[in-house]
Amino acid sequence: MTALKRIWLVPLVVAVWELTTRLLQDTDFPPPSTIVLRMHELWFSGPATRLFLTDDAIENILPSLGRMFTGWILAAVLGVVLGVILGRSRTAADYVEPLIQFGRVIPPPLLLPLFLALLHAGLAMQVAAIVFGVVWPVLLNSIDGAKGVDRTYTETAIVFGLTRAQQLRKVVIPAAAPKIFAGLRLSLSLALILMVISELFGSSDGIGYQLLQAQRGFDTPAVWGAIALLGLLGYLVNALFTVAERRLLVWHHHARRTL
């Protein structure tokens, strides 16, 4: 019943969309049924042995996901490591904070021509763009989480003779984990957006490349299909991350329910 309460609006919106677009008969706004048929034709009409993925799906969707997750993982490692270090060192944070505040306000798409000139079109340029745009929420949340660790925890760890490395592993990182995961979750959606944008610049495959080619070919259902596919991928990735977060932070969610 809970699931039904959450999704009852979706079929209603789709039905209204279908009826409205059929009445308007505007080629720029095809009905959902046409979009779904085009998506099936492009990506999901392959053999069952390949999970019904077509050649276009394998050649475009999978590389896009590879770029997105590569950039996201690199940004996650970089952001968490630097964030914990800066969060536990006020001196280092004071020196670096102006650079962080300067870098985080620069829109990543504006740097795509720079990355293109330095790294040329290809995987390196696309991953660099994703990393630059994704690292900030992870870094800032990691700094905030590490800085906000209750002093009682660290003092207790010192009393028990834990080394600095043991304090980070057993006290600081677990205490900062809820903030870190919040940054990682936010960065996932940014990684998806930047993946598409980076593929519009000199790419020869990917969902963004297919979207651009469909637009140039006036294939409106394919354009809307690519947009719908990105929405579905975003929803699926977020749902999987939420499940993983609940399993890894089960102690945190249980503590919040008991408050």
Written account of the structure:
With 259 residues, the chain is mainly alpha-helical. The chain contains 12 helices and no strands. Helix 3 crosses helix 11, helix 4 (55-88) packs parallel to helix 7 and helix 10 packs antiparallel against helix 11 (220-248). The longest helix has 36 residues, at 164-199. The radius of gyration is 22 Å and the shape is globular. The protein starts with a helix and ends with a helix.
Write the layout of secondary structure elements.
Blueprint: H1 2-7, H2 9-24, H3 32-43, H4 55-88, H5 90-104, H6 112-119, H7 123-147, H8 151-159, H9 164-199, H10 207-216, H11 220-248, H12 250-258
- Cα distance, first to last residue? 26 Å
Order of helices and strands: HHHHHHHHHHHH
Number of helical regions: 12
Report the strand count: 0
Largest sheet, in brief, is:
none
Q: Bin the helical content.
A: over 70%
The gross shape turns out to be: globular
User: Which structural class best describes the helix and strand composition?
Assistant: mainly alpha
